[in-house]
Amino acid sequence: MLTAKVTTKGQITIPKAVRDKLGLSPGERLLFKEENDEFVIKKIVLKSSLDKWVGYLNKSETTSSDEIVDELRG
Question: Which CATH class is domain 1-43?
Fold first, then answer.
């Protein structure tokens, strides 16, 4: 089991083993999700623009250009 200590500023250092396992780099974002009186920490993985376009190309229905632009802008 790994632990971390909270600083006076409310910050923690994520243990290296956890950073390596999640593939975390400086500046990446994490999601804190409450489940059954505990928190689960997950790495936020953003879809790249290319992934979004591939998804659109694989759709069987048509999508307007406005919908595509809105989706790409997030």
Answer: mainly beta
